[in-house]
Amino acid sequence: MSNRAVLEVIALDEQDAVAAQTGGADRLELVTDMAADGLTPSTAGFTAIRRAVDIPLRVMLRLADGFAAGDIDALVGRATELRAAGADEFVLGFLTADGAPDLVAVERLIAVLDGAHWTFHRAIDRAADRDGLRKRLADLPGLDTYLTAGAAGGVDDGLPVLEAEAARTGEPGYEPQILVGGGLRLDHLPRLRAAGLTAFHIGGAARPHGWTAPVSAEAVRTWREAIDTP
Question: Which of 5, 86, 153, 187 is 20 to 30 Å from 203 at the Cα level?
Fold first, then answer.
């Protein structure tokens, strides 16, 4: 897996997880309540999925729709419980009202993540200053990925930003891997791969019958093959 592109798939339950792994997913993002754009799953839900599959799981830390941290004490409690249950990779990202990274909330959470790797999610696409956000988060322990579409509206709008940021890999603030997600389609892949992007995140694209139906192993396999085709 070290030199092949990463395919991450959103999973809501064990059935999704097994289908995604069967289809060739490298990693799962675990959430609940997609009506609120993905919230923290229960610890029991995490444990059931952890038993069902053997690929890495990134667990969402988010208690309400939007990009404000909300009840950070409650979130720290959930993160602590998930960490104790064996969760070792996470997804989080919070902004202040003026679109700056909420460093207080982020630092409180990663303190209890205890060195676990984590993704800063699409809050970056709503930031007032993307470059400034990356610079301010650059030294935080465990941050290894940005999930981004390049723009709030999705990959269609964000392609030029994604290409520009991919070209800056290795600069301060740009070391984390760019995980492209948010309105990602198969026809975006050639341009993204040409820009050197090597990690892709799908949710609805893995569910041809919508969010009320489970992940389709066949749909995931289609993406796996497209990503692996030079």
Answer: 86
Give the three-state DSSP class for 144.
Answer: strand
Q: Residue 214: its pLDDT value, please?
A: 96
Q: Measure the CA–CA gap between 209 and 17, rounded to whole angstroms.
A: 17
- Helix (H), strand (E), coil (C) string for 54-99: CCCEEEECCCCCCCCCCCHHHHHHHHHHHHHCCCCEEEECCECCCC
Q: How far apart are CA 98 and CA 114, in angstroms?
A: 29
Helix (H, G, I), strand (E, B) or coil at 141: coil
Residue 42 predicted with pLDDT over 70: yes
Of 208, 201, 206, whose CA–CA distance to 220 is shortest?
206
Residue type, 215: V
Share of the chain above pLDDT 70, in %: 99
CA 73 to chain centre: 22
What is the C-alpha R_g of the chain?
Answer: 16
Q: Is residue 36 very low, low, confident or very high in pLDDT (cuts 50, 70, 90)?
A: confident
The secondary structure of 107-133 as a DSSP string is HHHHHHHTT-EEEE-GGGGG-S-HHHH
User: CA angle, 50 as apex, 49 and 54 as ends, to 5°?
Assistant: 110
- What pTM was estimated for this model as a whole? 0.96
Degrees, nearest 5: CA angle 134-139-141: 115
9 forms beta bridges with 28, 202
* Cβ–Cβ under 8 Å, residues 10 and 29: yes
